[in-house]
Write a structure and sequence with these properties.
3-stranded antiparallel sheet; single chain; 136 residues
């Protein structure tokens, strides 16, 4: 039974938590959301790595979700967008033990979502903001 960490590989919180869980002798699988649709795929059975193993959904005990929404300035291939939507749907409605379900953290009431949307309305980001996972 595995604990899944889902998000970006550059996320220091996920890196720290992964290290901590490994010290506790937990079985940890990191799924890099940036590889989804290119090197990792997802279906009703599980997560599949290109030329590699499959992680069955039934073997997942819990998920710590730190995924980020797709960057609005990047044009993602349709297949990759669909895999992201499938992953968020799985995290929201199919997996029973998820910390940080996407429907709550990517809602229009979340501050990161609002700050990304403000750009599409012709407004600028505030000069000062508290952001996570950004290297200065």
């Amino acid at each position: 039974m595995a604990i899944v960490l889902y998000g970006r590989s550059c996320d220091p919180v996920l890196q720290y938590f992964c290290h901590y869980l490994q010290q506790q002798k937990s079985v940890v699988v990191f799924i890099d959301q940036d590889q989804l649709g290119t090197h990792i795929t997802l279906d009703q059975v599980g997560w599949h790595w290109k030329n590699g193993p499959t992680l069955l959904h039934q073997d997942i005990v819990s998920v710590f979700n730190r995924s980020a929404s797709l960057h609005p300035a990047i044009s993602y291939p349709m297949a990759q967008q669909q895999y992201h939507m499938r992953a968020w749907s799985w995290l929201d409605y199919e997996c029973s033990m998820v910390l940080n379900r996407p429907r709550f953290m990517m809602s229009n009431t979340s501050k990161p979502y609002q700050s990304l949307r403000v750009r599409s309305c012709g407004l600028s980001m505030p000069r000062y903001a508290c952001l996570a996972n950004i290297r200065m």
